[in-house]
C-alpha cells in the first residue's frame, strides 16, 4: 500500500480538526511502515493506537458540532457510529490473528479522505463561527483545551 499524501484541499480550515485528521493519516502511514518492517513500533501497537485515536477524534468532532448547534449533528454522528463498527470489527479480526492490516489502513484512509471532502465540509462554517465566539468570549475560555483533554487525555 502506498502512503497517503495530505493535500491542502483536505484542510477544513479548523486547525484543531485538521491537526487530528493529519495525525490519523500519519498513523496510517506509520502502520504501512510497520507492516513493511521499517518501523520500531509493532503493527499491533499502531492498530490499537490508530483505532482508539480515530474514535476519540470522532467524539471530539461531535462535541464541536453539538456545541455549535449544528443541525445535522445527529446524522453525522450516525455516520461515525456505522464506520466505528466497521473499523472495530477489523481490529477484532486482527486481534484474532487474521491478516487485515492492509485492509484496515486502506479502509480507514479512503473513508477518511472522502468523509472530510463531504460530511466534514458541511459543518465547517457553523463550527468555525462558534469557535471564534468561544475563543473571544472569556467566560468560555479553556473550552477547547478541556474538550481536548476529555477526548484525548494527554494524546490531544
Ligand atoms: Fe466527521
From TrEMBL:
<keyword id="KW-0561">Oxygen transport</keyword>
<keyword id="KW-0479">Metal-binding</keyword>
<dbReference type="GO" id="GO:0046872">
    <property type="term" value="F:metal ion binding"/>
</dbReference>
<dbReference type="InterPro" id="IPR016131">
    <property type="entry name" value="Haemerythrin_Fe_BS"/>
</dbReference>
<keyword id="KW-0813">Transport</keyword>
<protein>
    <submittedName>
        <fullName>Bacteriohemerythrin</fullName>
    </submittedName>
</protein>
<comment type="similarity">
    <text>Belongs to the hemerythrin family.</text>
</comment>
<dbReference type="GO" id="GO:0005344">
    <property type="term" value="F:oxygen carrier activity"/>
</dbReference>
<dbReference type="InterPro" id="IPR050669">
    <property type="entry name" value="Hemerythrin"/>
</dbReference>
<dbReference type="InterPro" id="IPR035938">
    <property type="entry name" value="Hemerythrin-like_sf"/>
</dbReference>
<dbReference type="Pfam" id="PF01814">
    <property type="entry name" value="Hemerythrin"/>
</dbReference>
<feature type="domain" description="Hemerythrin-like">
    <location>
        <begin position="12"/>
        <end position="124"/>
    </location>
</feature>
<keyword id="KW-0408">Iron</keyword>
<dbReference type="InterPro" id="IPR012827">
    <property type="entry name" value="Hemerythrin_metal-bd"/>
</dbReference>
<dbReference type="InterPro" id="IPR012312">
    <property type="entry name" value="Hemerythrin-like"/>
</dbReference>
Amino acid at each position: 500500500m502506498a502512503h497517503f499524501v495530505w493535500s491542502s484541499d483536505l484542510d477544513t480550515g479548523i486547525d484543531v480538526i485538521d491537526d487530528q485528521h493529519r495525525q490519523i493519516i500519519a498513523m496510517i502511514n506509520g502502520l504501512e511502515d510497520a507492516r513493511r518492517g521499517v518501523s520500531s513500533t509493532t503493527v499491533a501497537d499502531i492498530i490499537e493506537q490508530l483505532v482508539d485515536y480515530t474514535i476519540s477524534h470522532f467524539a471530539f468532532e461531535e462535541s464541536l458540532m453539538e456545541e455549535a448547534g449544528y443541525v445535522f449533528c445527529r446524522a453525522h454522528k450516525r455516520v461515525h457510529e456505522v464506520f466505528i463498527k466497521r473499523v472495530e470489527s477489523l481490529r477484532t479480526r486482527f486481534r484474532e490473528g487474521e491478516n487485515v492490516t492492509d485492509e484496515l489502513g486502506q479502509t480507514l484512509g479512503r473513508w477518511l479522505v472522502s468523509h472530510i471532502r463531504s460530511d466534514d465540509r458541511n459543518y465547517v462554517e457553523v463550527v468555525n463561527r462558534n469557535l471564534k465566539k468561544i475563543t473571544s468570549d472569556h467566560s468560555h475560555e479553556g473550552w477547547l483545551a478541556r474538550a481536548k483533554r476529555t477526548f484525548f487525555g494527554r494524546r490531544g
